[in-house]
Amino acid sequence: MSHLSASAAGPPPAVLAEQLPFHDGLRRRRLLLLLICVGNIAISVAVMGLALWSRSALVVLPPLLALVGIAYRGYLHALEERDVWQQLEKAARELNQLDAAEVAAVAIGRLTSMLGADWAEIILHRTATSPAMTYSGTSQGLDEELCRPTDARPARSADAGSAQVFYSAPLDGPQGAVGTLRVGFREFTVLKKRELHVLRTFAYAVSRTMQNARLYDAMCLHAAAKAHEASHDVLTGLGNRALLHDRAEIALAAAGPRRQCALLIVDLDHFKEINDTLGHAAGDLFLQRVGQRILSSMGEAVAVCRLGGDEFGILIEGLPAARHADAVAVRLLDMLAQPVSFDGLHLSVEGSVGVACYPDDASCFEELLQRADVALYQAKSSRGSFSHYRADRDPSSLHRPALVAELRAALAEDQLVVHFQPQFDLQSGAARGAEALVRWQHPRRGLLAPGEFVDVLEHSGLVGDFTMVVLEKAVAECASWSAGSVALTVSVNLSARNLLDSELPDQVRRVLLRHGLPAARLILEITETTMMSELDVVEEVLSGLRALGVQLSVDDFGTGYSSLAFLQRVSVNEVKIDRSFVAGAATRESDRALVRATVQLAHSLGARAVGEGVEDERLLVTLRELGCDLAQGYHLGVPMPAEDLRKALGLQVRRHPVPVPRTAESVRHLRAVVGA
Ligand code: C2E
Ligand code: CA
Ligand code: CA
């Protein structure tokens, strides 16, 4: 019992050796005692009968009774043991939570009821990412008042109380001591050896889960802080372009002909003069004041953002018709015309406002932004006014439909090419597979990166065909690799819209069959935002893909909002930690802890962790130390044409890619897939 300690205060010891402390078993024990009483009465009656029949027969009684006694005790003991381990197992299963407070609540509740204690507490040490923390409670739940960072916590009144016995066990996890677990009894109590064993075993389970939960909590906080930083303007505290984009995506999804979504872009007309004459500090203050004023006067807006310089964007949803946005623009102009006072000055500023609405004026957010910008340009020509977008005055309105038409031609004329970026095993250094990244060999503009066209594609209705072209090329290439005994995988990116297409699993199945590629060698990468969707069809498509045996990967993990929640919902084979997330891992302890937490999370879900954006050796070494399984990045290999990848990895190409399955494995696989 070297790791357990007990401390007592209060009345002298009472004899508690025979106490039966596992409350949950009490009822059953009482029943047993009743049975024993009944048994004893039966035995007494039998003895009396025996004595009346023949006194000499009584000689056999003592050993017989001793045997019955031993049997009773053995039975009772076995029952107790079973109860205890069943409760422990149940408790350990219930501990499987991701939130530290939930883990604490379950642990404290379970432990107090298992040991019959009056309260329990979990005291956690400070770590690089979490403060020292104490959770206290009883079997009824946590005591909110006492669950605080340890420094800020009021003294527990019971601590100072009179009659208390404490038992404590260290919380030792895979990464060392995490803290201490204590249980307290108001009355003097001596825990039996078995109960102490339970306490110690349970403490170990708690420490493992708690360590993970704390890291995940820290990861969520970090992600939330980063998300706030990434979505807000430092000077004014308003949202930025990224926030506008996110809010608009949601608002646009709910919009329709009778629920117009308006974007108003405001540009201050005299701001440059303020900056030039009063200096930049005054200019900053002025922008802050104007920003606050817009925010407070646009209560109905779903987003008020600073888009840069002296430009602000206001997003309003649910307008019954596009013309209602013009009334908002007039109100905005009136408000801006009121003088702003600071440093004893009263400065009047005028603004110009450009207005565009979805779906009347634009078919997606990018178009809405661009059209509000065009309208602003039109408004600027007459200062202090607003302008609603008019296609007949927009010189660029032909651009987008033209791009869609070009993309249609690109699909028909096979202008899309797929490059491959290798992924390596961090332990063995061996190549494990490659990610297929699309490029467009444009007849005039040369090789275009996905950033230049994927977005337009996703809103064009062509995304289904596009994904199938990339998939076909990637699967064909992968099926042609024969790299000795290693079966390399190929990863293909899916767009959010692909998961809304219930035909997808069947299409994927046909591509695999066509090229004879075992499903497990195809990894489909899906971003978190897509998987967060609660839509039934997404669930259906994902389970259809899983049933095929295809692997699923979460792309850009850490950039979404409810990463953990959805990982609990959807089972994946791989988690790709976003490169913005891993970039600091080599230099900052907090980033390192978060990457480690993600790796542990992936592993606890039975998935592997892939680090993206490995740009130098230091990052590679760090990811290996953090237990990451695979790595991908410019340092290991840039995305390259299929032929270059084959050369780089020394892959032999099968002369005749196998259209029909040859190996026993793939025959079995194909049979399974087609249900033969
Ligand atoms: P992604 O899925 O996160 O792909 C990885 C991107 O990171 C690629 O950009 C790759 O070139 C880049 N990258 C790889 N290693 C490094 C590194 O060490 N440092 C840095 N800074 N970047 C690195 P790429 O090829 O421009 O693709 C951009 C995005 O376009 C992809 O991001 C993916 O979301 C999308 N995309 C690419 N191909 C497809 C496709 O076939 N279908 C769909 N739906 N989207 C695609
Ligand atoms: Ca990807
Ligand atoms: Ca990625």
Notes on the structure:
With 676 residues, this protein is of the alpha+beta class. Helices cover 47% and strands 21% of the residues. The protein has an 8-stranded mixed beta barrel with strand order 15-16-19-20-21-22-23-24, surrounded by 4 helices. Strands 1, 2, 3, 4, 5, 6 and 7 form a 7-stranded antiparallel beta sheet that branches. The two termini are 60 Å apart.
Mean pLDDT: 83
> Approximately what portion of the residues adopt beta-strand conformation?
15-25%
**Low confidence ranges:** 1-5, 7-22, 157-163, 658-664, 669-676
Q: In what order do the strands lie side by side in the largest sheet?
A: 15-16-19-20-21-22-23-24
How is the main sheet built?
8 strands, mixed, barrel
Bound molecules: ligand C2E, calcium ion
Distance between the termini: 60 Å
The 3D shape can be described as extended
Which class do the helix and strand fractions yield? alpha+beta
- Number of helical segments? 22
Instruction: Give Rg in angstroms.
Output: 34 Å
Helix content: 40-55%
Annotation, overall tally of beta strands: 26
